[in-house]
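Hello support,

Our group uses your service weekly, and this is the first time we've seen a run hang past the timeout. The protein is DNA starvation/stationary phase protection protein. I'm not sure whether the cause is the sequence or the server load. Input pasted verbatim:
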Amino acid sequence: MSKTIIGLDKAQSTELAAKLNELLATYQVFYTNVRGYHWNIKGVNFFELHAKFEEIYTDLVEKVDEIAERILTLGYTPNNAYSQYLKVSRIQEDIAVSTAQECLTGTLKGLTVLLEQQREILNFAGEAEDEGTASQMSDYIKEQEKLVWMFQAACQTCHA
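Update from on-call engineer: The timeout came from a worker crash unrelated to the input. Re-ran successfully.
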C-alpha cells in the first residue's frame, strides 16, 4: 500500500482530494451567492440581513482557503478557476436575488447542501483514517448546523 508524505493511503487521498475539490467548488459558488445577497438585499430587513450576509461570506472565504490548504496538505492541487467550480458545484448560481425571502431561502438551501456534502467527506475521511480532514469537516458541520437552525427560525416559510 502506497502512502502519502503525511502517512495516509495514496489511493484514498487521491479520492479525498477530488471530493475536497468538489466541496471547494460548492463553497466558491455559495460564497458568490451570499456576496450577491449582501449587495442586493432590499426591504425592511436590509440593515440586519446586509450585516448578516457579510458575516457569512467572510466566514465562507476563510473556509475556502482552509479547504484549498487541506487539498495541498494531502499532496494535490486545488482547483482555482470558476469554470472548474461551475462544473462540479452542488449549488447553482443565484442571480439577481434581492428579496429577504429569496436571500434567506438561498442561504438556507446552500447551508443544507454544504452539510450534506461535508458529512459525506467526514465519513470517507474516517474510513481513510484522515483525522485532519475529518476534524475540519466536523468543525464546519457543527457551526453550520447552528446557522441552519437560526435561518430556519428567522424564515418560517423558507424551505431548503
